[in-house]
Amino acid sequence: MTERANAIAAKVEAFVRTVVMPYEKDGRLGFHGPEDALVMELRAKAREAGVLTPHILQDGSHLTQQETAIVLIRSGLSPLGPLACNTAAPDEGNMYLLGKVGNAEQKARFLDPLIRGEARSAFFMTEPAETGGAGSDPSMMQTTCRLDGNHWIINGRKKFITGAEGARVGIVMARSDDGACMFLVDLPDPAIRTVRVIDTIDSSMPGGHAEVDIADLRVPADQMLGASGEGFAYAQIRLSPARLSHCMRWLGLATRAQEIATDYACRRHAFGKPLVDHEGVGFMLADNLIDLKQAERMIDWCAGVLDTGSLGTAESSMAKVAVSDALFRVADRCVQVMGGTGVSGDTIVEQAFREIRAFRIYDGPTEVHKWSLAKKIKRDWKAAQG
After folding, report:
1. Is the pTM of this model over 0.85?
2. Phi/psi zone of residue 134: left (φ > 0), alpha (ψ -120 to 50 degrees), beta?
3. Which of 73, 117, 261, 309 has the smallest number of Cβ neighbours within 10 A?
4. Looking at residue 103, what DSSP letter applies?
5. Strand partners of residue 87
6. Which burial class, exposed, middle or buried, applies to 35 when counting CB atoms under 10 A from its CB (0-12, 13-18, 19+)?
7. CB 88 within 8 A of CB 20
8. Closest-CA residue to 79 (of 357, 355, 292, 363)
9. Residue from 139, 117, 101 nearest 36 by CA
10. How do residues 41-58 score in pLDDT, each as one tens digit?
């Protein structure tokens, strides 16, 4: 199966390097993410090249997680690569979730347009901190849902909802008397109003990150995923693979940043020799090489755990912490090696720095994952004591 994944990955890498990278200076790259017209133009080219949604095969089956890593790392070589190939968040995670728990009708209506790259999606979970809503702790969810005949009525406010602006498919989490619930929603809907698109450090995701108000949203009962109260269980199904796929894509981008910084260091001369021959610069690039390889192995290890059928909650937490911190070090060193050029928009290195810095927060800050792991250590210790 690795041979299959390597073949797909080679096609993806060739497409990203030859077709996608020239778009990195396109005028349709907005402050809150690339415009949808640019995304759809790139997806048309990916479809023509046979690399659209490459992690989902023609029969609807999904590559293994270890195979997915090989492919998604290549798609991440450009900030636009995941968008072009339809491997970007939140769509990739939403497709995975719907493929696992959606029924046939839900898949035909909501999943298939995502796989075909014809629509974008959004996952409505996090809520404003100002009102004590759910963030890294989903049990704090304040958005409510109640059954009214054959419809559910949803009310609440969500924040940092990636891609909500322009999305056609929404997955909304709310709390019923039974517990957390998930609903599939056609977008746009007048009951879901964008309050603002938040200015954030990153700029690679179409639609940016929105704060939205949900007022008396009526959702047919057959658009609930599973049953009332099962939402947290489904969130767990999505959580680890989506967390790990972030690691995959950003490893690709950090690898590209290393390529650019290496080329700069080998061409740029100062104090009588190429920068790379100065020990301080050469050591930074060497440290990057070590961090990149360690990140790659961590991803492969965690993917292997997920491929056994395990939820991999602890393993994905470890991978997320290790990989996001390592890749941030890589991006930071690349900026430093390139000096003034590194903080300019002349290359994608400064964007890589911004995007990977945000990744250390998104999908759970480092500290939350470490706290979760510490609790597991204590539980395991108690169990060992009998």
Report:
1. yes
2. beta
3. 309
4. -
5. none
6. middle
7. no
8. 355
9. 117
10. 999 999 999 999 999 998
